[in-house]
Design a protein that fits this description.
The protein is mainly beta. It is built from no helices and seven strands. The strands form two sheets. A four-stranded antiparallel β-sheet has the order 1-2-5-6, with no helix packed on it. The protein has a three-stranded antiparallel β-sheet with strand order 3-4-7, with no helix packed on it.
Length: about 70
């Protein structure tokens, strides 16, 4: 589990910063790795959701798949 701290700005029509504020995103990761005991190929899958807490709680699912070779 992690927490990402972000400093953001409210901007006007000319892209000038009007005010600054801090926000954050909660992050976690779950995954699985598969490799045969005597094999060299590796397959991994991961799920990484990001949860943004502002006025409303926003959920941003993310993930990945990797295939590799160990030597």
């Amino acid at each position: 589990i992690g927490y990402i701290v972000i400093r953001e700005a409210v901007r006007d029509a000319e892209n000038n910063a009007v005010s600054w504020f801090w926000s954050g995103i909660i992050s976690t990761r779950g995954g699985i790795r598969f490799q045969k005991p005597n094999g060299r190929m590796i397959v991994r899958a991961a799920f990484t959701p990001f949860i943004e807490r502002e006025e409303l709680i926003k959920f941003h699912p993310s993930g990945g798949l990797s295939i590799g070779y160990s030597f």
